[in-house]
Amino acid sequence: MAAEKLTECHGITVSAETGRGWLRDAGIDHFPRRTRPPRSWRERKAQVGALVQLDGSHHDWLEGRGPRCVLRADIDDASRRVDARFYEYEGTSPARDRVMRYVQR
Fold first, then answer.
1. Alpha carbons 51 and 101: distance in angstroms, whole number
2. 52: closest CA among 72, 78, 89?
3. Beta strands 82-87 and 69-76: pairing type?
4. Angle between the 16-25 and 2-10 helix axes, to the nearest 10 degrees?
5. Contacts for 15-19 with beta carbons within 8 Å, 24 or more apart?
6. Which terminus, N or C, of the chain has the lesser number of Cβ atoms within 10 Å?
7. Largest alpha-carbon pair distance within the chain?
8. pLDDT computed for residue 34 by the predictor
9. Residues 86 and 70 sit within 8 Å (Cβ to Cβ)
10. Phi first, then psi: what are they for 66, rounded to 5°?
11. Dihedral angle, C-alpha 91, 93, 98, 102, nearest 10 °
12. CA distances from 10 to 1, 7, 16, 20 (A)
């Protein structure tokens, strides 16, 4: 809100986080949160395979005992079944491999 007021009243454009930082530095540390509309949950798909979500997670999964890798996972919306596998990188070939493994399964 402070950042919006600076822009509106003085033509100064800063990010909301910068505005909050300036207020905190001035000793003002209570900021009202904007209310967001409640999240509406959608129904799960009725049929297995109708919606499959794919995601990759970059992390030092082996905790320094091996190369960094990407955990590629897929989750079926209807069955909630999760399947995952490690890959060297997150790219087209690993994504294609995940899809092919899902279809074959």
1. 15
2. 78
3. antiparallel
4. 100
5. none
6. C
7. 61
8. 72
9. yes
10. -165, -175
11. 140
12. 14, 6, 15, 17
**Count, residues in the chain:** 105
CA 95 – CA 105 distance, rounded (Å): 15
- CB-based contact 58:70 (threshold 8 Å): yes
Q: What single letter denotes the amino acid at residue 19?
A: G
> For the segment 22-75, what is each residue's pLDDT rounded down to a tens digit?
888 888 877 667 778 888 888 999 999 899 999 999 999 999 999 999 999 999
Per-residue pLDDT at 11 exceeds 90:
no
Residue 71's nearest CA partner among 52, 49, 51, 54 is 54
